[in-house]
Design goal:
Helices cover about 55% and strands about 0% of the residues. The chain is mainly α. The longest helix is centred in the C-terminal third of the chain and has 12 residues.
C-alpha cells in the first residue's frame, strides 16, 4: 500500500502525507498516475484547498 492509498483510507493524516510525499518519486507516480500524484503534491504545496482526488468519470 502506497502513501497516497494510506491517506485516502485514513491511515495517516494530511499533514503526514504532506511531509512524506516529497520523498517519493517515479515509483509512486507509476503506481498512482501523474494526475493523482500531481494533485497531492499541489495540495501539499498549498496550490489548492482540496484534500482528496476524485477520479474523473469518462462516458
Amino acid at each position: 500500500m502506497n502513501i497516497i492509498q494510506q491517506y485516502e483510507l485514513k491511515y495517516i493524516t494530511f499533514d503526514q502525507l504532506s511531509e512524506e510525499i516529497w520523498g517519493y518519486g517515479q515509483r509512486l507516480i507509476n503506481e498512482v498516475g501523474v494526475e493523482r500524484f500531481s494533485f497531492y503534491v499541489e495540495a501539499a504545496a498549498g496550490y489548492h484547498n482540496f484534500r482528496f482526488y476524485i477520479f474523473p468519470l469518462y462516458i
